[in-house]
Amino acid sequence: TLSKEYPGLVRMIDFSRFAADGWRGSLHLRDIFNCVGSDDIRRRGLIVVLDKADKRLCEPAMGSGGTDYNVLLQNDLLKMMDGDVIEFGAEDKQPALSVDCSRVSVIMLGAFERLLEGKSQDAKHIGFGTAPRADAGSHKDISYNDLIHAGMRLEIAGRVNKIIALEQLSVNDYKSILRGPALSGLQESTGCKISIDSAAADALAEQAIESGLGVRWMRSAILNAIDDAMFDAPEAKAWSVTLEDGRLRCRAKKLRKSGRACMSRDRMAELPFYSNHQK
Length: 279
Known about the structure:
Elements: H1 2-5, E1 10-14, H2 29-33, H3 38-44, E2 46-51, H4 54-57, H5 69-81, E3 85-88, E4 97-100, E5 104-108, H6 113-124, H7 144-150, H8 154-157, H9 171-190, E6 193-196, H10 198-211, H11 214-230, E7 238-244, E8 247-255, E9 261-271
Parallel strand pairs: 1-2, 2-5, 6-7
Antiparallel strand pairs: 3-4, 7-8, 8-9
Helix pairs in contact: 6-7, 9-10, 9-11, 10-11
């Protein structure tokens, strides 16, 4: 959405790939600005979106000497968040670079699993004989102290203007994603037509929420079932995913020339699967 509103002014960065300056083989702060002219930043501004920021802000990366290298990376990040002019020296065939960060905005995204786990544990120990609050550990009440307690440096937290915490996805949300981008991505990657019945979609969504494995796990579960079925029907170009007797099953379907599916093959592959309905 930001990219559509501000074309050319948004850099989406996988922050989990970053390391502190001086470490080879990883991305560094300078790499954020390599594809953006310093004059453009000074004139138009820049929005830097750090995806998976929690992997560097709230998780330690201890070296053999006891140094937490994620803390060093946060030192580098402070330079950008302070709006200072950052001077990068010439190195690795790259010329020297000066970047004025006064018009650079930083957005940090992440699951922050350690933070939520910590809040959940705190909710269980509110006090002797005291029942935990219903909203303790929820997404709504994330505070600056929670970020600091999870590992974010005090200086970084002090420069965060606003915390926006999203509620967890519902079963219907997962089903919408499953039938939309998840299936579309699988069909594109496999080159096959894939359909899934409502019972299988319900069970996958419920299991994804209960296990905490999320949307990518649903995609993997379907792909594993298709991969197993392909051993018996490698020429199949259409698959039907169903839930039968608590198991995720995949049937190969033969397409007619008109593009419609006819009767399923007798050969079938199945992946053990247990839904909440069996508990």
